[in-house]
Amino acid sequence: MKAVLLEAFGGPENLHYSDHPDPKPGRGEALVRVRACALNHLDLFIRDGIPAYKIGLPHILGCDIAGEVLAYGTEAQGPKPGSRVVVCPGRSCGDCVYCWRGEDSRCKDYGIIGAQAGPGGYAELIVVPARNLFPTPAGMTDEAAASFPLTFLTAWHMLITLGGLRAGQDVLVLGAGSGVGVAGLQIAAAAGARVVAASTSAEKLDAAKKLGARELIHSPPEDLLRRAIKLTGGKGFDLVFEHVGPAVFDKALKALAPGGALITCGSTTGPVVQLDMRYVFSRELRILGAKMGSLAEFSEVVRLVSNGTLKPVVDATFPLEEARRAHEYLGSRKQFGKVVLKI
Ligand SMILES: [Zn+2]
What we know:
The protein has helices at residues 41-48, 97-100, 142-145, 149-162, 179-190, 202-210, 221-231, 249-254, 277-282, 295-306, 323-331; strands at 2-6, 15-19, 29-38, 64-72, 84-87, 90-91, 111-112, 125-129, 133-135, 170-173, 194-199, 215-218, 237-242, 256-264, 286-289, 314-319, 338-342.
């Protein structure tokens, strides 16, 4: 098969479009012909050599995959061969206390396909656990289908499962133009929250409004808190959806209402934040970390994408052989929604 191999850690020049042996499905696994694979910032972090991911080289990146199931290994079943499928990106052992409870991402063997859990979707073929296959929503392109798994699963886990979001609550979505931001604001709006979207890009905020944001904050981080407090009539937010890190963390925490929760799934501006403990105890704030989500949560996300409640947003597509260019584009942070490789 053709695949894009990461041959050394560093810049996009380390991605090589090459021939690679076809994978074979083992016990419980399915062989999938990849038609589209969406990029995530995680791909860029792994490519750069982030120490948290111990990955052998050469490696095939790509966590968000849509295509057709071709065949199954032993003791595997799922949609019949030829069916269009979308792949849940998380892989867990299936047989530990966390997996039994449906808390897949807490499993010690949990990994993301294309990251620490084996080769990903920058390739014509991939082998994945058969139980990770879900039917592609009817009438949806492969590019759109590849654009929702990782971000919508993460955002669902953050807002619904961990945040316990209820109708009428005030939710602040930071970095609203990113893949996970787009997912977060749609899920919060669909759950009946009053969503405020924040971004430093006016263009991205226009698009956020069309996806359900009631109010917009277009301001540099210094001004974020003042605007946020004003928009909630001085009360503060019930939930803050966060993935930016040090550039906004302190202001995001102070923008919470008493008893509110800041839920974070990433820290794109650096790993270390300052925490003013006085705010945390005096206002009974909660800080919740989120990592991906479970197969059960993914099935809910697929259902809501299938019935049109949640809409994947594709910003740009590139052919597989232009993965380098796609990385450069994602790195420029100009996109609204997902950058997708067509295979
Ligand atoms: Zn497990």
